[in-house]
C-alpha cells in the first residue's frame, strides 16, 4: 500500500469517529476529542511505510528506515 492510501484510511477512520462522537468520549478516565487527532492520524498513518526505503517516509528518514528494516 502507498503512503497516500495509508493517510486516507487513517484520516477516514478518524473522520468517522468524529461523526459518531463529535463532542468526544471518555477513554481511560480522560476526555478524548477526535477532531484534535486529525493531524496525528495523518502522520501516524505514514509510519508503516518507514521500513520501506523506496517510500516517501523511507526516503525522508533514511537512517530510521535502515534501522527498522
Overall mean pLDDT stands at 76
What pattern of helices and strands is seen along the backbone?
A: HEEHHH
In spatial order, strands of the major sheet run 1-2
DSSP, total strands? 2
- DSSP helix fraction: 55-70%
How big a fraction of the residues is strand? 5-15%
List segments where confidence is low: pLDDT < 50 over at least 5 consecutive residues. none
Molecular shape: elongated
**What structural class results from the helix and strand content?**
mainly alpha
Helix run count: 4
End-to-end distance? 17 Å
Rg from Cα: 15 Å
Sketch the major β-sheet: 2 strands, antiparallel
How would you concisely characterize the structure shown here?
By secondary structure, this protein is mainly alpha-helical. The protein has helices at 3-20, 38-46, 56-60, 62-68, and strands spanning 25-27, 30-32.
Walkthrough of the structure:
57% of the residues lie in helices and 9% in strands. It has 69 residues and is mainly alpha-helical. Strands 1-2 form a two-stranded antiparallel sheet. Helix 1 runs antiparallel to helix 2. The mean pLDDT is 76.
Amino acid at each position: 500500500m502507498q503512503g497516500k492510501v495509508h493517510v486516507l484510511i487513517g484520516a477516514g477512520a478518524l473522520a468517522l469517529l468524529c461523526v459518531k462522537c463529535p463532542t468526544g468520549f471518555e477513554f481511560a478516565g480522560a476526555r478524548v476529542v477526535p477532531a484534535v487527532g486529525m493531524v496525528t492520524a495523518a502522520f501516524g498513518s505514514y509510519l508503516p511505510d518507514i521500513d520501506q526505503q523506496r517510500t516517501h517516509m523511507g526516503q525522508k528518514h533514511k537512517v530510521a528506515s535502515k534501522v527498522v528494516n
